Amino acid sequence: MNMPDLARACPKLHSTDSWPYSVHMVTNHPRSVTEATAHAVAAEMRWRGISTLALAGRTGISRTTLTRRMRTGEFTVPELERIALSLGMRPSELLRSAEERQRRS
Prior knowledge:
By secondary structure, this protein is mainly alpha-helical. Helices cover 65% and strands 6% of the residues. Strand 1 and strand 2 (23-25) form a beta hairpin. Helix 2 packs across helix 4, helix 2 (30-48) packs across helix 6 and helix 5 (77-86) packs across helix 6.
């Protein structure tokens, strides 16, 4: 999935000039959206019984970086793509899950 597909799937997703290396969520409460993204990833990991170490190995993201991203919710687009695919879902499904979590909070 490329950036235009992600942007259509999650209209609150906005890339910076340095795309694909960084992503910022555009909303009135950006922290809650990033937290919701991290919570969505964690929930999918728990549901599938996948540890942080296992997901790091599947995605090629170091365990330290993945742990930091899970704490901050500040994932890059390529990281979200790799995480979603490693969890057996499309990136748009993962972002939709995060958006639903943010709405509920």
